[in-house]
Amino acid sequence: MNIELNNELIERCNNLSMYNRGTHIKESAESDYKRFIDTFSSRTLNPQQLEIVKKRTEQFKELITNIYNEYLSISANFVPVNVAGPAKYNSNKFKKVADRMDKKMEEINDKINKFYDNTESMLKNAYSKDEIILKYKNGYNEPISSDDPLAREKLEAKLEYLQTKHQSYLDFNKKARLNKTEQLPPYVLANSNQNMKAVKDRLQTLDKIDNIETGRYYFDNGEVSFDKEDMRVKVFFDEKPDEKTRDELKSRGFKWSPKNSAWQRKLTPNAIYITKRMFKDIGSLEIKLVNDYTKTI
Predict the structure, then answer these.
(1) Average pLDDT in the 260-286 region?
(2) Which are the contacts of 35, defined by CB distance < 8 A and separation ≥ 6?
(3) Domain-ending residue, one of 189, 210, 231
């Protein structure tokens, strides 16, 4: 994999080390580039994703070239004591250079990891809805967030896969009993049942959320919104709440959102329960027990 790094800097780094430091840096850059290509070229991708990978590979090559040239420019100023000799060796000067090299390498790793994450996100968004659901029907096991717009479809597809798999276990044991051969260990079916139950529980949770009345419910100093579109419980205050109120909100999982100008947390049955305990008689929610700063409407 040819990465066009600065040859003058590579040569200078080699001359200032006993183990061809510049060549090793070039090999590291080429290894990072090859790893990126190998990671994404081995996947089955749709046409849109193939275009994304092609473009991202070019961008990654440019990124690797730039960040490793920056690293070479720093490394070209470092002279180890075993090359310069101990006489009049400026330890403080070269320690600072070594620290800059370490910091730059951390930056390189951070940028590479971020580039990978962004590429994965772009590829994920390039799947059609049908392709995504089919992946879960075939055993794809990436976690499913409750605020995912496709959460229900994904969970139902996952449950279908688990039920098919569970039935295969039952069929295997039935055949084993007939043939008087060894059956599956009991924990296999137990784990399978547990996995199916977990998905069914998630679907029931979504049903509860679907039954929540949307809208805004008012209290003395503001209002509460159960926003199913954003999957958030949002608390709006007419003015900044006092420290005691803010501390209580934080202790109950609410975080300040500058974007929405609200205190919010993910919309779940537990979040609804928490909110009911915090705010008093909001609309038809029959909310009980709350602080002094609220009142019955």
Answers:
(1) 74
(2) none
(3) 210
- Helices 21-41 and 91-125 cross at an angle (nearest 10°) of 10
- pLDDT for 215: 65
Average pLDDT over residues 34-44: 93
- For residues 97 and 113, what is the distance between their CA atoms, to the nearest angstrom? 24
Among the candidates 91, 126, 161, a domain finishes at 126
Q: Is the pLDDT of residue 87 over 90?
A: no
**Contact between 264 and 275 (Cβ < 8 Å):** no
Measured CA to CA in angstroms, residue 18 lies from 14, 24, 101, 204, 269 at distances of 7, 12, 17, 65, 64
- Of the chain, the end-to-end C-alpha distance in Å amounts to 70
| Percent of the chain residues past pLDDT 90, beyond the cut | 56
Instruction: Tally the domains of the chain.
Output: 3
Look up the domain containing 42 and give its range: 7-126
Which pLDDT score, from 0 to 100, does residue 283 have? Answer: 41
For residue 297, is pLDDT > 80? no
Token pair listed for 199 = 């998905």
Nearest residue to 106 (alpha-carbon basis) of 133, 67, 63? 67
The stretch 56-70 carries a mean pLDDT of 95
| Spatial distance between the Cα atoms of 237 and 260, rounded to a whole number of angstroms | 12
Residue 140 in any domain: the answer is: no
